[in-house]
Amino acid sequence: MSTPAGRRAAWSRDAGPAWCVPVGLVVVVASVVVTLMTAVAWWLFPALPVGILLILFGSCRVAVDARGVTVTVARLPLRRFPLDSIVAARSGYARLADLGGFGYRIMPGRHTVSLRPGDALWLELKSGREFVVTVDDAETAANLVMELLEGQ
């Protein structure tokens, strides 16, 4: 992949299982209906906060551009990696067990955002740590990061 002179390149994808947000919506609506019909206090119905969490955190967006790599959750930046903090990028398959499970994980030498098994963007950082995020089309993201690093 090569960007023509004078052009800027960017890549962005939503990451996460397709079922999280719709299931979260169903759980929230069902919780509200049950709460209204039974006059049970909403905070006693644990499904409501679970549904809200599924909606807010069931997916994330991964973006690569000339500034670096950004992972956002609920439209808020979760992690930002300026290009000058990245040594290399690659794509590869990741199992949830390899990444410490579902969600945001901190392990010795590695931070991960894993919302499903499969294609993942692996960043090697100047700090000596790794950052991994599971996202479709990670190969394009990794190639763009490497191209941007070469152009620095």
Can you walk me through this structure?
There is one protein chain. This protein has 152 residues and is of the alpha+beta class. It folds into two domains: 15-58, no CATH class; 66-152, Pleckstrin-homology domain (PH domain)/Phosphotyrosine-binding domain (PTB) (PH-domain like, Roll), CATH 2.30.29. It is 28% helix and 37% strand. It has a five-stranded mixed sheet, with helices on one face. A four-stranded antiparallel sheet has the order 1-2-3-4, covered by helices on one side. The model has no long low-confidence stretch (mean pLDDT 88).
Descriptive tags:
152 residues; alpha+beta; PH-domain like; 2 domains; 5-stranded mixed beta sheet; 9 strands; 28% helix; elongated
Overall geometric form: elongated
CATH topology call of the largest domain = PH-domain like
For the record, what CATH class of the largest domain applies?
A: Mainly Beta
Which structural class fits the helix and strand makeup? alpha+beta
Low-confidence stretches: none
β-strand number: 9
CATH homologous superfamily grouping of the largest domain: Pleckstrin-homology domain (PH domain)/Phosphotyrosine-binding domain (PTB)
Along the chain, the helix and strand elements come as: EHHEEEEEEEEH
Mean model confidence by pLDDT: 88
